[in-house]
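ok so i was messing around last nite and threw this chain in just to see what happens. nothing serious, just curious
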Amino acid sequence: MARNNEGQWWLGRYLSSLQFHRVSPILSSMSAPAPFAPQTPTRPARFERVGNFWKRVSEGRNIDELWKQFTADARSSYGFYGKDVDWDEVNKLPTWKRPLRVAGQLFWAMMNKLTPARRVLVLVALVMLLMSGVKLQTGNTAVDINLDFLAALLFLLLLSLELADKVIMKRDLEIAREIQTWLVPSEAPPIPNAEVAFHTRPQNSVAGDYYDAFYPLNDAQSGGKLMLVIADVAGKSVPAALLMATLQASLRTIASEGLGLSELAERLNRYACAHSLGGQRFTTAVIAEFDPSSRTLAYVNAGHNFPVVRRGNGGTDRLSSSGLPLGISPDATFPSSTIELQPGDSLILFTDGVVEAFNSAGEEFTDGRWLNVIRSLPSLSAEDSLRYLMKSVEQFVGATRQSDDITCLVLRTK
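result:
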């Protein structure tokens, strides 16, 4: 009997254990506290749409960047239209009359940039705005004229037409820019005992600055001479870019004949004179030949900014001008000069867009400041030296839109 009671006790305990194991997971899930997980607040869908719309419009830029871009655009537009203002006439007027005269001349400066049909469209929209809010009383009937909505539609139509023209022109300029990049080296050529780097920042989509580094006789492997070129065509944008393309083609053709620098520059000058509109589209240039075996640099400076040789010991030399700019006189001569480079020296070629770069206050970078930056140049590779120099210019100008192309080329000997 005791054994039966003992068996019943063990059986009951076994069944109880089965029931506990079956129920315990449920109890655990009900009673055990869930691990802490931070809850991120969910924004309503409409706020997400507004945020995505703003990012699309602003391209992710913050308010400060947008404001700087707006002020730069406004300053550039004012300078563009301000060229048509007769400031001599304005300054002769009494002070209280000047703002009205400037506003009127700016208005006509903008109108003259439009086609006749679009001018009429602007005038009609302005008349509608002036007539809005006018009340006409005829007997006991009063009529309120409200044409604000129609005027807004006309201005929107005008904006869409101008925007379409700009998009088409921008697309053509981008194609021209792509073609122009084919005319200048995208990678630095291999140079025994030296290395070269270059940078350009166009003022517009296309540039009038030209730089090049190539072997005229394609004899890089045999230690042939490297030709270095930097040039600046007078003018801006498309006209200067077209002349730059013709200059590049003629230079490459003449250089392949193996002529001396003086004769090469004279032939290039005669070609430039035939396409310079009587000297109006002249070109300043520095054309140099670097012999890697002896580290000797022969050069011709045709009215260009004096290049700088930064010596490894910290000193500097200037390569002065030896002739007129290309395209002014077909009888001009261009004597060449020679300079010896030592290991660790850097030759720095640049256009006037570097020293004439200006900041938001209108202050120029100046040649003196540029020389100080070059003197402080550490012992770096050509690429790092170029980056160091360009960073100093970019920090000075900030987001200010420039009026000229900025181009620089650095050759560093080993």
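not much to say yet. Confidence is low (pLDDT under 50) at residues 1-37.
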